[in-house]
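Many introductory courses stop at the sequence. We go one step further.
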Amino acid sequence: MFKRCEKVGEAIHKEISTLLINGVKDPRVGLVNITGVKVTDDLHLATLYYSVIGTDVSRKDAEAGLNSAKGFLRREIGKILRMRLVPDLLFRYDESIDYGSKIESILRQIHETDETDAEKDT
């Protein structure tokens, strides 16, 4: 069984992703991808996790762009989902992608050193 907050989170995820592509004209949010949404049980706060392709500068620019578009996004979500109470939007950078990349590079290094050691043994 899904909780209502999970259903609202999924709907917000879908609509915000669409709005970022079609509705927001700020170039800073062009390469933003919403990776997840968590809504509190009382539906007062929605935390949106995002990732950005690029450097730390583009990440900070994207965060500024998302925060400046927050009012527009919240208003549009209220219209689309016809909610009486629209959650406040809080944008957080999704660090799990960076963490996964770091682990992958460590595993790649381990694999390369194992291959090098195996070549030395033969």
